[in-house]
Structures are given as C-alpha cells and as structure tokens.
Amino acid sequence: MSDDAVEALFESDPFPRRRGGRFVAALRACASRQARRFPAIRALYGREGFRPDALRSESSVLDIPFLYVSVFKERDLPPARPFRPALTLTSSGTGGQKSRIVLDAGSLRRVKASAERVYAALGMVDKGTAANYLCMTYDPRQARDLGTAFTDELLTSFTARARVHYAIRRPPGGGPFRFDLEATLRALREMAATGLPLRVLGFPAHVLFTLRAWRERGWPDLRLGRGSWVMTGGGWKSHAGDAIPKPEFRRLVSSWLGIPAGNIRDLYGLVEHGIPYVECRRGRMHVPDYARVVVRDPVTLRPLPYGRKGLLHLITPYLSSFPSFSVLASDWGLKRPRCACGLPGETLELLGRAGTSPAKGCAITAAELLKR
Ligand SMILES: [Zn+2]
After folding, report:
1. Residue in 266, 270, 306, 304 with CA at minimum distance from that of residue 284
2. How far apart are the first and last CA of the chain?
3. Position 315 confidence tier, pLDDT thresholds 50, 70, 90
C-alpha cells in the first residue's frame, strides 16, 4: 500500500499546477520504510522525537530530520537486513572521501523515470531523432560505478544515439584518467560534419577549455542550430578561478557552437540525491514535484523564506535502499516561488559551495585533470 504512494508520485507530472498530497504521501511511505530498514535513521528519529506518520501536510515536510551529506562520505550506514543491490554509485574523489550509494531496482527505476520526465517537460527528450554526444566526462566503460558516468548514460538516452564520445579516459595500457583534448577536438569536428544534432554534456570548465583550444587554433565557429544542446553540471569547483558568469558562458558557447543561448542548460544534482534540478530556457533551475528543497539558516538551521541565502536541505522519496533521502548539502542557494517561463513551481539558484569540506565531489577531481 505505502509503496504505491511512492510509485504514484514518480509516475506523475513533474511540474503540476497543484502540489502537496501526492508528494507528502510518498514521503511518509519512504520515511517509514527507511526507519524500518536503517538503524541509523531509526536512531535519528528517536533522538529528534520524529514520527513518519506526522507527515500529513506540506508544512510538516519542514520537520523531517536530515543528515549532513558529509556523513555519507565518512561512514557506511548499512541496512538492517541484506537486500539485492541493482547498482552501486560512487562520487569520484581520488584524494578525498567517497560516497558509496547503493540503489536497489526500484530506486534505480524511479531516479531514471524522474530524470526522463523532468527533461521531457523541459522539451529536451526527442527519442525519434538521432544525435551525437560529446561527453566531457568519464568513459562509463572504464568508470562503471561513478555517479557522472551513470548520469551521462542517462542523459544520452533522451534521443536515439548516433556517436558518443567520452573525453575523460584512461590511456591505452592503463594509468590515471585524463582529459584528452586532442581527441575531443577531433570528435567535435567530425560530429559537426555529420549534420546531426549534437549534445555536449559535462563540466563547464571542460566546455570552456575546449572552446578556447578550438579558437586558439583559429578554427571557425560552428553552426549546429536549434536542435543541439549543451547540458552542464557539477559547477566549477577547484576551477573557481576560471569561472565566468553564466550569461557570459552562454554567450561564448552559443556563438562558438551556433546554437541558441536558451539551449545551454545547467543542472544541479548530487550522487546522494539524484533528482535533477535543470535550468529552463530562462536559466532558472526548477524544483520538480519529486523533491522538496528547504533553504536553511547555516547557524540555526531554521527554514528561510524565499530569496534568502542558506544551506540546501534536499528531500526526495525515490530512495528505498540508501538513507540519504533527506540530506543537508554543502551548497549555498536560494529559492524563488515562481518563474517567468511559465513552468509551475519553485526555482533554485545556486550560490556556491559551503565551507572547506575535505570531501571532494566528482567535479573537483575532473577539473584537476585539466592541469595535467
Ligand atoms: Zn523557468
């Protein structure tokens, strides 16, 4: 019965006009299942005096206890009894700590469904058309369990796939991953010559790095047209010094590839929280009904109103196999109640990474590859 509530949410419209009941029912089912399965969650609820059954209204969602995202990098929180994992994902920090996320078949199916429905609502799913993919990320054949590889496999499934090129690979014969600029430039030239739409995926630092290398060679700008997209994610991290404002990034990449600036979209998501927060054509990240984002004061941890900067508390009921369904991220942001693009619901603005956490994300490691 309770599982039905979770399934019903993930089968429904990601951006409905009215929100509330469906999400709250799914979260209630998820929270009680998590408390049964994970001793750490049960202990957390006991300490906070929280009962999943108290989740009865939208405002009650604010009361759900959370764990800091760093907890998942520092320790394993095993379930009470064994269950069958379908996929294990890790964040890719080589020097830092890793999160290791276990997805069972249901969680995996729901996280994939949520991504597909979100991107479809934003007009980015076109299964009838073949597109080339330039992924400035880890080759999933060599990095099976990395969160970014999982994300790319997902993001390349929204059209028919023509050619897919991965820029971060191990050299033949082994060795550490590296960003292969020459192969990336070559792939881009060849893909542009096919006349098919192109989708560029990856970290913004790599996109900018490739753009600059292209222009340094004196090669002409491309004209890929309105069927092509750039989908970035992961932020600038250790390349903060190279970070440029989003409007400038959009202008540069738009004129380089010859695509509308509105086709350049950024994405926010965590390995621990796989719901995608994707920019609309106006450049605002939309919060789908599959999740709630609470912006919290960094000192008191109280919820903050719209427009105020705080730490992001991310909540989603898709996870039945890992206890990060209510997690305080180490990212700053703020929320707005609506967007001029017409898609209903709240939007999110990212305002950087909090603190000097020793835990490195995928993007920080990938960005370091540019220094080699
Ligand atoms: Zn919008």
Report:
1. 266
2. 54
3. very high
Q: What is the mean pLDDT of residues 95-122?
A: 87
Query: Which DSSP state fits 303?
Result: B
**Each residue of 119-144: pLDDT tens digit?**
999 999 999 999 999 999 888 888 76
Domains and CATH numbers, the chain: 2-80+288-343 (3.40.50.12780), 109-285+352-371 (3.40.50.980)
Q: According to the model, what pLDDT value does residue 304 have?
A: 98
> In 192-344, at which residue ranges do the beta strands (DSSP E only) sit?
198-202, 229-233, 264-268, 277-279, 285-286, 292-296, 310-315, 326-336
Neighbours of 319 (CB within 10 A): 27
What is the whole-number distance in angstroms between the Cα of residue 346 and the centre of ligand 1? 9
Does the structure show a pLDDT above 90 at 88? Answer: no
359 vs 55, residue with greater confidence: 55
Q: How far apart are CA 116 and CA 76, in angstroms?
A: 30
- The Å distance, Cα 350 to ligand 1 centre, comes to 15
Question: Which stretches of 49-144 are DSSP H helices?
Answer: 69-74, 105-121
8 A C-beta contact, residue 331 and residue 301: no
Q: Are 368 and 176 in contact (CB under 8 A)?
A: no
Q: Say how many Å lie between the CA of residue 280 and the centre of ligand 1.
A: 5
pLDDT at 297 over 90: yes
Cα(278) to centroid(ligand 1), Å:
9
To which H or E segment does residue 358 belong? none
- The better pLDDT of the pair 188, 75 is held by 188
Ligand 1 centroid to residue 142 C-alpha, Å: 36
CA 256–ligand 1 middle distance (angstroms):
25
The Å distance, Cα 211 to ligand 1 centre, comes to: 27
d(CA 247, ligand 1 centre) in Å? 16
Distance between Cα 257 and ligand 1 center (Å): 23
Residue 101's H or E segment, with its range, is: strand 100-103
Average pLDDT taken over every residue of the chain: 89
Q: How confident is the model at residue 96 (pLDDT cuts 50, 70, 90)?
A: low
Which pTM does this prediction carry? 0.89
CA 336 / ligand 1 centre spacing (Å): 10
